[in-house]
Amino acid sequence: MIYQTVIRGEVVGTNSVCEQGEWEAMELARPGVNRLVQSGITNEGEAERLARGTSGDTKPRGGRVAAK
After folding, report:
1. Structural domain total, the chain
2. Which of 4, 15, 19, 23 could cross-link with 51 by S-S, CB 3.0 to 4.6 Å?
3. How far apart are CA 23 and CA 47, in angstroms?
4. 60 in any annotated domain
5. 67, β-bridge pairs
6. Each residue's pLDDT expressed in tens, for the chain with a length of 68 residues
7. In the prediction, which pLDDT does 13 show?
8. DSSP structural state of residue 58
9. DSSP code for 19
């Protein structure tokens, strides 16, 4: 599962990854503090990539414009 922590309506920090049991415990302890972004992810590697988004991706290189 991917979630975000929300305080006073503002997302705080980055996306985080947890397992179903951890999510349920967090919701019991502090209902509504965390926002579920995505569930049903099949493996940890996929969850980490989805949580990271484009952070850490190689930046595209600009093409050169030919001089005339």
Report:
1. 1
2. 15
3. 14
4. no
5. none
6. 999 999 888 998 889 999 999 999 999 999 999 999 999 999 999 999 889 886 655 666 766 666 66
7. 87
8. P
9. -
Q: Which domain holds residue 28?
A: 2-52
Measured distance CA(43)–CA(64) in Å, rounded: 40
Residue 68 belongs to some domain of the structure: no
Residue with tokens 């502090």: 30
Q: Which residues pair with 7 in a beta bridge?
A: 10
Q: Residue 67 domain-assigned?
A: no
Q: Give the type of residue at 43.
A: N
Q: What pLDDT does residue 9 have?
A: 87
Distance CA 56, CA 26 (A): 28
Residue identified by tokens 């991706």 is 57
Shortest CA distance to 19 belongs to which of 42, 53, 50? 42
pLDDT at site 64: 67
Tokens read off for 21: 């049991």
